[in-house]
Specification:
By secondary structure, the protein is of the alpha+beta class. It has 18 helices and 23 strands. It folds into four domains: 211 residues, no CATH class; 171 residues, no CATH class; 100 residues, Golgi alpha-mannosidase II (Immunoglobulin-like), CATH 2.60.40; 115 residues, no CATH class. The strands form four sheets. A seven-stranded antiparallel β-sheet has the order 1-7-8-9-14-11-12, with no helix packed on it. Strands 16-17-21-20-18-23 form a six-stranded mixed beta barrel. Strands 5-6-10-13 form a four-stranded mixed β-sheet, with no helix packed on it. One of its GO terms (biological process) is carbohydrate metabolic process.
Amino acid sequence: MNVQHNTPIHIHNVNITDQFWSRYLEIVRKEMIPYQWDVLNDKANITIEKERNDETIPSEKSHAIENFKIAAGLKEGKHYGWVFQDSDVYKWLEAVAYSLHHTFDEKLKELADSVIDLLELAQEKDGYLNTYFSIEEPERRFKMLAESHELYCAGHYIEAAVAYYETTKNEKALRIACKLADCIDANFGNEDGKIKGYDGHEEIELALAKLYQVTKERKYLNLSRFFLYERGTDSSFFDRQRQEDTGKKAVIEGMHHRPLSYYQAHRPILEQDSAEGHAVRLVYLCAAMADVAYLSKDKEMLSACRKLWKSIVERRMYITGGIGSTVDGEAFTSDYDLPNDTMYCETCASIGLIFFAYNMLKNDTNSSYADTLERALYNTVISGMALDGKHFFYVNPLEVNPENSAKDPGKSHVKVTRPEWFGCACCPPNLARMLTSLDKYIYTISDDIIYTNLYLTNQTSIHVKGTKVSLQQETNVPWGGDIRFHIQQDAPSTFGLAVRIPSWSKTYKIYLNGAEIDQKPKNGYIIIHREWQQNDEIILSLDVNIQVWSANPYVKANVNKIAIQRGPFIYCLEEEDNEKNLHLIRIPKNEPFNYHFETGLLGGVGVIEVNAKKRIVQMEWDHQLYSTDLPEEYEKKKITFIPYYCWANRSPGEMQVWIEKE
């Protein structure tokens, strides 16, 4: 293990003091991490729900830590849960690593160290690490890759180990990861006797790229490239493994009918030009491709990333940054097919979209990636967690009717309130690691330019061309549009500072030391390149006026409807504020929207009100389903929008993002 250190593209020593985001960091540290630890140890007195109506989903308990104790020989028993249950522990560990970076906690570190010790005991001599196959079916190792999630779980441990090593310098964590990666390298590749294949769920590719960046062991980057370029080249690989399998039961029930596109294995990656299949798998694949393209200067792979990015954001993404249009396979469907009440929009999928966007920013300094990163973060991602940090959405709908969710089997995945935990619990720990790693998404560096991708109050320092620069950002975003950058350094130095003009800001003003700058954005950033002096200051004023959005006319679900945005937030109507039957509301043309901030509502939120009309349902409709002569009648009604991220934190009820316009 040859650990080397180099200047990363992101600035790791960022101190977030932002009022909005500090609250989330504290919730993760004080509530989510301890809560999730109790769940993983089966100590939480909670109800675990199936994410949809499916009797095959295990939902009695987590048992994740117990599985490791059994695999380590510390206890006797059978494996319980999904074959990918290990990944819940790994994502928890990664969240702990990032949280310790923000706020060091010796007791939490000792707890995490004990988990590392347990994993070392569970790891087999050749480096293999997977509780299901070690306990239940060691003879099927790497033999059912379409559904086994072995490399997926391995990837999540490697990512956690890299993060934990970077924060704590725990070499045991990294040593386990390298031994695991070496085991995979010994079993997969183009050489004779190795498996010429890949996992059904992408993740190992991302992790190996990160392990390479820490260790500088080229074989890990090469192995990631192998998995990426091998995918989709042999259409019979999964079928051959199934035919040769000697197991008596499926590793995961109901997977045999999935087409190769579900796994993004229908074509080689350079030939894929549309977002297909399971949404999380697709964005994990794309995130890995973008990172490997950056690390290996692979222009063809980067070109493929750009095609898939356009497919997602131009034709297959919800206005909230959600992706995945159908519950069947948690998957993309076709262009412009974006139903609001049967979609999936899994929390993990939007997290994966953020990974993809961030890795594209390494390659292309284009604000469209940061715009999407911000859209997903402020809307679908934080919608995935209740304000108490102990209830979670797997699915993030844009329209909900409680009765339909209860009685329509096709909408059983559309929850009205956030459950305490899921049988398939990928989202809660994924959300925890996403939020605690927020600091790395704020800035990126290209050559001698510092790019600002997110606006939140923080302080950081970075060496640019050998000069230490201290950068302080103060802002009232997301509720306001004022940003102030204060620059300090040891001596005058020349570098660039790029500030992003978000897509939601139609106008802007920028000042350098009090003097307005007349400069147009380049790829969405205004780049100020100069010799900076001590105590230089930039002030950016963004436009947070309310925006009224329409969807592409090909999106059938949203014809003659509008959605409301202010700053980075998409807004919605809730029954709590507007009574039942939200679908009967119409918003008149040219009616002004009014914004105000309510400190006592939902932890403090900006509220939008507008005078609208609501259709009256006449008594005659009680006795007939259709009519040719009943006229439409409307009553005036003031309606209230709240930010989408905080819906379902009060009483259960209807919710709607897209509203009929007059």
